[in-house]
Amino acid sequence: MSTIESVRESYRDFDDQTYAPFVKGVALFGFLAALPYIIEIDVAGMELAATLSLKVLILTVIYAYTAQAWNIMSGYTGQFSFGHAAFFGIGAYATQKLLADLALNPWVGMLVAGVIAAGYGLIIGFLTFRFKLKGHYFALATLAFAELLRFVVVNMSELQGANGYFKPFPRDYGAEYGLLAFQFQSDLPYYYLILGFLLVVTLISWLIKNSWIGLYFFAIREDESAAASVGVPAFRYKMLGVAVSAFFTALGGAYWSMYFNTIRPDTVFALFKNVELLLPAVVGGPGTLIGPIVGSFIVTPVSEVARTTFTNINGLDRIIYGAFLVAIVIYSPRGVVSWPSRARALWNRVRSTDSNEEVNN
Amino acid sequence: MSETNQHADREGETILSVRDVGKRFSGLQALDGVDMDVKRGEIIGLIGPNGAGKTTLFNCISGTFPPTSGTVTLEGEEISGLPSHKIARRGLARTFQITRPLEELTVVENAMVGAHIHTRRRSEAEKIAMEQLEFVGLADRATEEAGELTIGAQKRLELARSIATKPKILLLDEIMAGLTPSESKQMLDLFRQLRERGTSLLIIEHDMKAIMNISDYVKVLNQGKGIGFGRPQEIVSNERVIEAYIGGSDVDA
Predict the structure, then answer these.
(1) Which has more pLDDT, B160 or B12?
(2) Tell me: the pLDDT tens digits for A197-245?
(3) Does A231 sit within 8 Å of B114, measured CB to CB?
(4) Among A198, A209, A215, which residue's Cα sits nearest to residue A296?
(5) Option in A215, A225, A287 nearest B113 (CB)
(6) S-S: A69 plus which of A249, A301, B19, B47, CB 3.0-4.6 Å?
(7) Are residues A247 and A355 in the same domain?
(8) Domain B2-91+167-247 in CATH: superfamily?
(9) d(CA A163, CA B180)
(10) Beta carbons of B62 and A229 less than 8 Å apart
(11) Which residues of chain B have a CB within 8 Å of the CB of A345?
């Protein structure tokens, strides 16, 4: 009986408590809330902030958020979407369009954008699920729907074509810098805002996972016809998954459009955006609650820092994304969050063969 | 059909009624005018050589695909053409020839998927699920991942998942295939207990001894057609049945 085992034992006891998820959530989000200050701590004349800026942290949490939203559909129901840029772009464009044309407050515009994205998701879902597209075919179909939007937007003068939108000043829509205007003059409030977004989508994910909806989602992912044979209306629940996921992804796009100064078809609808939105979930562990967050903190800072450090090597960040994707898919399809249990299993195996040898000797 | 009328004096309320059901797959008539009744609390064995259409009939009844002709009624209401999740909600559950555990879910979660047909509350579904696991003898493995169970345990899990929907009738497709003799015996015992609860069972099985032992009536299919229906002892002496099995080149049962 080692100390490791007794620690694990007491962790298990803690895990059985009903308050355990709450405590874990508070600990995680408490840590994330403290991060902007942690990176500024001076350790032996070095501070993390020198390489890991607040801007990188914001990007990291943005992608943690979108990966969490992607996860609700693709991680839980197993319908692997490769076209979430469609929803992200709708979120950004609808918010900015309503802002530019009607001076509609971005908070309201964001919700309208979410509903439009959910509607687009339902159209995609209706067409693909009705015709029982699965696996690669489904992924490619979703990609086609995303690319379709990019081409449409590029060619629509009503949406400013390839030029995109410039974010207006708060005074242009009768507001002052602050939460209500969705605009701030420094990065720190932006960080806490997206952290709030992440908290909300994580909470929704947790509620889904812990209800019959989550169980139905997982059952559909594992075996759709076996699930249907015990009463799971697979089509309806897949539609629910895509609608919820599209809605929240669009809110991420809306945030993006209010954080950065411009949006263009080749940024928010970019082909590569599809990868960026989902990769943290795949790396961290698809179908898990913590996976998208962990995954984003692995993938985003590394590629961002590489991109800004080695500016002479064009596309290094994408190479890093590609390497992560290939390595995870080959070696650890259940993602980084499965590593502790895999290590434990390996450790137990090593130990049991050791003790067997002792017996044999 | 004379073969059904022969036992028109069968007592009890009809749960499942299959009338003149046919299924055509582009050029192949897999089922042709099949008739069958299942009454409450009956165990009906469905036998026939390979390719006779047994699983196709299960698929037509449970809504995997609709029959091309004929009707299926459950407690007097037509279910043919409905999708399988709706048929399950009306009280008909099935298992599959090749076990289909929801691998990355735990044993109890597998059973809960079935139990949620009655309730949206997780705690209630868990209670129903645990009762079924208790019944099939898997309660002590509730928190294991379903993919890690042995074939025998997976078969019992599949049974637990389907009875968690509390079906009026249960269709079991070769659930005993691949079981050890003691596991088979245990399974037959579960069938009897289910019958005592009033659940009707329609069973496809290749183990003739087991099926003749457990079934109240046996239905024989050959080349998509019903060629015999009766008490097990009548079936073993039925000439057409003997011919279908011995006369054909395929004697696997």
Answers:
(1) B160
(2) 999 999 999 999 999 999 999 999 999 999 999 999 999 999 999 999 9
(3) yes
(4) A198
(5) A215
(6) A249
(7) yes
(8) P-loop containing nucleotide triphosphate hydrolases (3.40.50.300)
(9) 70
(10) yes
(11) none
Domain ranges of chain B: 2-91+167-247
Q: CATH number of the domain that A193 lies in?
A: 1.10.3470
Interface test with A, best of B55, B59, B82, B85 (most A CBs within 10 A): B85
Which amino acid appears at position A174 of this protein? G
Contact B104 A219 (CB under 8 A): no
Total structural domains within chain A: 2
pTM: 0.90
Structural domain range at position A43: 1-50
The CA-based angle A86-A88-A92, given to 5 degrees, is 115
| B19 lies within 8 A of chain A by CB | no
Distances (CA, A) of B140 to A71, A322, B100, B189: 32, 43, 21, 20
What pLDDT shows up at residue B2? 45
**Shared domain check, A61 and A24:** no
Do A147 and A3 lie in one domain? The reply is no
Closest CA to B173 of B227, B92, B97, B61: B97
Taking 80 as the threshold, does the pLDDT of residue A342 lie above it?
yes
Give the pair of three-digit tokens for residue A345. 């299993």
Q: Does residue A105 share a domain with residue A45?
A: no
Contact call for residues A275 and A163 (beta carbons, < 8 A): no
Does B88 contact A228 at a Cβ distance shorter than 8 Å? Answer: yes
Q: What is the mean pLDDT of residues B122-151?
A: 94
Q: Please write the tens of the pLDDT for every residue from B228-240.
A: 899 998 888 888 8
Whether A37 and A159 share a structural domain: no
Residue-wise burial string across B80-97, b where 16 or more C-beta atoms lie within 10 A, e elsewhere: bebebbebbbbbbbbbbe
In sequence order, the β-bridge partners of residue A275 are none
CA proximity to A113, closest of A273, A263, A255: A255
| Residues A304-329: b if buried by 16+ CB within 10 A, e if exposed | bbbbeeeeeeeebbeebbeebbeebe
* Min Cα separation A338/chain B (Å): 13
Convert the pLDDT of each residue in A17-29 to its tens digit. 888 889 999 999 9
